[in-house]
Amino acid sequence: MSALTRDRATPYREGIEVEYLVAANTKIYAGSLVCVNAAGYAAPAADTIGYQIAGVALEQVDNSDGSDGGKIVRVRRAGVFEF
Fold first, then answer.
1. Contact at 8 Å (CB) between 32 and 11?
2. Is 40 left (phi over 0), alpha (psi -120 to 50) or beta?
3. What kind and span of H or E run contains 70?
4. DSSP structure class, residue 82
5. Neighbours of 70 (CB within 10 A)
6. pTM (predicted TM-score)
7. Does position 27 have pLDDT exceeding 90, yes or no?
């Protein structure tokens, strides 16, 4: 990368809403907690080894008949959620 010679408009986003590929045979409901499984795919939250909380689903995604990564779910990662 060369040195800049003029101002640059740099794209920016806060990372509050992110997208994850959905695990195979999975249905995620809008408003539910979402985890990322050990393989890196989104799945409904569960107390399972290797799962990490990703946030709250912004939409319903049905990948029941799909393969890993067959669908994408948008997740909100920041804020205070009432459950």
1. no
2. left
3. none
4. -
5. 17
6. 0.81
7. yes
Q: What is the pLDDT of residues 31-61, one digit of tens each?
A: 999 999 999 999 999 999 999 999 999 999 9
Q: By the 8 A CB rule, do 29 and 60 touch?
A: yes
Residues whose CB is less than 8 angstroms from the CB of residue 54 and which lie 6 or more positions away in sequence, other chains included: 18, 20, 34, 35, 36, 42, 75, 77
Cα-flanking dihedrals φ and ψ of residue 31, to 5°?
A: 85, -5
The DSSP symbol for 68 reads T
- Alpha carbon distance 83, 78 (integer Å): 15
* CA nearest neighbour of 60 among 68, 48, 71, 47: 71
Q: Is the separation of the CB atoms in 34 and 57 below 8 Å?
A: yes
Start-to-end CA span in the chain (Å)? 47
Integer CA distances (angstroms), 44 to 1, 38, 55, 81, 83, in order: 41, 13, 10, 16, 15
Predicted pLDDT at 65 = 96
Residue with tokens 């995620």: 28
